[in-house]
Amino acid sequence: MANGKIQRITPQRRMIQEVLDKPDYHPTAAELYEDLRRRLPRISLGTVYRNLDLLVRNGLINKLDMGSSKSRYDGNTKKHHHIRCVSCHRMDDINALPAGQTEPQIKEIRGYRILDHHFEFVGLCPSCRNRQNAGEEKRL
Hints:
The chain is of the alpha+beta class. The chain has four helices and six strands; from the N terminus they run αααββββββα.
């Protein structure tokens, strides 16, 4: 967690990061809280939310808003896709599409029967890009 933005690595932050580093584990804040309480009985839900927010703001974890009312959190900050069960809301990582298949051809991934898919692009508008580029030039 030494990226220069978080000064103190508290036991709570360390434990949250360790729990979120599990592969294919994308808990809600409440699920994470229940998991952490077994190891840190005195931790509060507020502490979990504050630390999740801090870790997200510092780019150490990702907050996933994937079509349900509750956000989920991911310790894997590398670019990858997710798949979510419409019944139980379980979420898994997709690191690569099956070989030789394009998105409309995919009928099954990791044992899931595919019902639909959505993609979202995230970027900067021309004005923001210009401001960002101007800021980078000033630093040079």
